[in-house]
Write a structure and sequence with these properties.
Blueprint: H1 3-25, E1 34-40, H2 47-54, H3 57-60, E2 63-69, H4 76-84, E3 90-93, H5 97-105, E4 109-114, E5 125-130, H6 131-135, E6 149-152, H7 158-169, E7 178-181, H8 184-192, E8 198-202, H9 205-211, E9 215-220, E10 232-236, H10 237-242, H11 244-267, H12 269-282, H13 288-293, H14 307-319, H15 336-345
Parallel strand pairs: 1-2, 6-7, 6-8
Antiparallel strand pairs: 3-10, 4-10, 5-8, 5-9
Helix pairs in contact: 2-11, 2-12, 8-9, 11-12, 11-15
Length: 349
């Protein structure tokens, strides 16, 4: 074969591959549309979901996605109950002992993917301390948490895990503080009226507490946590089995939203403004200037999870007595849904 012939053949192969990739990314929409109910707590960690919704990616797949706003949407126990009871088709929640215990019991849910992973410089979640305690010098370093009233979303959850890790790093234990459970919005109120000294918080509630002069970031999660997913997505098992293509298409559209979020976070300009409008529509923060200043979480563009980190957090839960036995990290998520999405979209670098 001549050099020109080889080049033509190579060009043809590239064209076929590109056409297949484009065809896969833009598959014909399902008809009639499949309704999918998913919860949301208006967290910045859900930004990829919001962008996929606002940009019409779910509709392009033939999905009628309904965002169910619930104050306890990130509480694993509540979300698991809603999923198992058929009140939700998909549910986002934080990692927790309750989730791992439920998986061990064989509750009717299936893991799809993590939405984000904690990085070493992550300031989008962590322990905030009342501003007056910081300004008075009563809090200067993590050792000063001793004797404080600290709020967490749930016992045996991601927030509890990170508070205990921070205490351990400071040479303290859980018996040195007073831990109570509060929702993220309620913790902001409690910090404001000084019935709480500190709390594990996430965005946008960190910035809301700061804007009210109630609290400031003291210990970012990036300083205490391994590369854990902070929010994970699960499905009702029966729904997923009966609608596997629809759920796979949901994950595909979601990963498109995740990648848009990553690009917007890094680039600024029109993409960043579009993200701000989306956050303004779906989160409690309506102040555009505040939205522009808030630290954004890391998003996971390929639905990947860190097996070592999943094993580490479970070891911690088991040692704390809140989890009975380990769930093999490889069994937390069913890879079929992400594999479908990556097969259509390709792997982001």
């Amino acid at each position: 074969m001549t050099r020109r012939g080889m080049l033509r053949r190579l060009a043809c192969m590239v064209g076929v591959a590109l056409g297949a990739a484009l065809g896969g990314a833009h598959a014909q929409a399902l008809h009639p549309p499949v309704k999918i109910r998913i919860n949301t707590a208006g967290l910045f960690a859900e930004s990829g979901l919001f962008l996929a919704y606002d940009k019409g990616y779910f509709k392009e797949e033939g999905l009628d996605v309904q965002l169910v706003a619930t104050a306890s949407a990130n509480s694993s126990s509540d979300t698991l109950a809603q999923l198992a009871g058929g009140e939700l088709d998909l549910g986002s929640m934080s990692l927790s002992a309750a989730l791992f215990n439920a998986l061990n019991r064989g509750i009717g849910v299936v893991g799809l993917l993590p939405l984000n992973t904690v990085g070493p410089n992550d300031h989008s979640s962590g322990i905030v301390v009342r501003r007056d305690l910081v300004e008075s010098g009563k809090y200067k370093r993590p050792q000063d948490l001793r004797g404080m009233r600290i709020g967490v979303l749930t016992l045996g959850g991601n927030a509890h895990f990170n508070v205990l890790r921070a205490l351990q790093q400071a040479g303290l234990s859980e018996t040195d503080v007073h831990i109570t459970t509060l929702s993220f919005p309620d913790a902001v109120v409690a910090l404001t009226n000084k019935s709480l000294d500190a709390a594990f918080q996430v965005e946008p509630f960190i910035s809301l507490a700061k804007a009210r002069g109630a609290a400031v970031m003291a210990i970012p999660q990036g300083q205490t946590s391994p590369p854990l997913p902070t929010i994970v997505l699960f499905a009702n098992r029966d729904f997923a089995m009966a609608n596997k293509e629809a759920v796979s298409r949901f994950v595909t559209a979601l990963l498109r939203g995740q990648r848009e979020f990553i690009r917007a976070s890094a680039s600024g300009g029109p993409a960043k403004e579009e993200l701000i409008r989306s956050l303004q529509a779906h989160t409690p923060v309506k102040d555009v200037n505040l939205l522009r200043a808030i630290g954004l979480p890391n998003a996971e563009p390929n639905g990947a999870s860190n097996a070592a980190a999943l094993a580490e957090v479970q070891k911690f839960f088991i040692a704390s007595g809140v989890q009975k036995k380990v769930v093999e990290p490889a069994k937390v998520f069913d890879p079929a849904y992400v594999d479908y999405a990556i097969g259509r979209l390709g792997r982001a670098k």
